[in-house]
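STRUCTURE:
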């Protein structure tokens, strides 16, 4: 499996599918696995890596959100303690999320050596700034709705390190995919700007595409996402065409992403219609 980024204490795996990332953090106190995914061999490669480095430490699995690509590998880590947002644990339709996982495996004739399950959550992140501590390791949580309803930003800190696990925000390869709410998405981007300023993380891992160590790039990704949403809203309000050439210069997977762009327009049109009453 492709290793997209590696440094002491950090390994970011990248699936062949949609450049989906799975991160393993390795602190003196625990091993944290973030969104283990996607193909069976890829999930098992992550499992083997975790077993190799474990050395008696507890394993925690963090889910950045409940989209099927991010929970699909959970069954290979069933002994682990689990972490996710309160919305993930209590609001999300678990049967529907699990059905999506199973449907995907059915469509691609995928067989796995572990069960398909919706994760039951041990550490529930409720409040912005809430922390989970074990030894010198602190995980600081910020609920991050907008892409879907149950996203979570996590800052993992230990021994002066600070890694930002962002889930499906701030991607270099995807404009915002808005399944839940464009207003909430914008709020989450403002939160992202505050997090960046306050924590100055050494690494940002997005759910899809390359991680970055550059705070300049982190800032750029926030402003690109904000400007996408604001431009889309303005175009719908004023009945103008969206400047697509610029969009497809920035994001290279046009044929795979056009429908998400159109779905965003439909969702935001509905939001504006609802506001007008
Ligand atoms: Zn995703």
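SEQUENCE:
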């Amino acid at each position: 499996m492709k290793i997209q980024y590696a440094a002491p204490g950090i390994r970011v795996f990248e699936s062949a599918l949609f450049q989906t990332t799975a991160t393993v953090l390795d602190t003196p106190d625990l091993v944290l696995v973030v969104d283990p995914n996607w193909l069976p061999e890829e999930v098992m490669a992550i499992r083997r890596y975790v077993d190799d480095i474990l050395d008696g430490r507890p394993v925690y699995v963090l889910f950045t959100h409940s989209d099927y690509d991010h929970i699909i590998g959970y069954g290979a880590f069933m002994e682990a303690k689990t972490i996710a947002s309160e919305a993930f644990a209590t609001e999300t339709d678990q049967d529907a999320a699990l059905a999506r996982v199973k449907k995907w495996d059915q469509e691609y004739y995928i067989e796995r050596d572990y069960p398909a399950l919706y994760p039951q959550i041990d550490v529930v992140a409720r409040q912005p700034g809430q922390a989970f501590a074990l030894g010198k390791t602190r995980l600081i949580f910020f609920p991050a709705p907008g892409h879907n309803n149950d996203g979570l930003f996590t800052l993992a800190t230990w021994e002066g390190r600070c890694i930002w696990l962002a889930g499906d925000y701030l991607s270099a390869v995807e404009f915002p995919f808005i399944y839940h709410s464009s207003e909430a998405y914008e709020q989450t981007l403002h939160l992202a700007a505050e997090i960046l300023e306050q924590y100055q993380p050494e690494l940002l891992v997005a759910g899809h595409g390359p991680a970055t160590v550059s705070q300049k790039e982190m800032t750029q990704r926030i402003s690109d996402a904000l400007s996408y949403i604001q431009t889309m809203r303005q175009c719908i309000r004023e009945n103008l065409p969206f400047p697509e050439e610029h969009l497809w210069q920035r994001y290279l997977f046009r044929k795979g992403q056009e429908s998400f762009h159109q779905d965003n327009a439909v969702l935001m049109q509905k939001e504006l219609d609802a506001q007008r009453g």
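REMARK: The first helix runs from residue 40 to 53.
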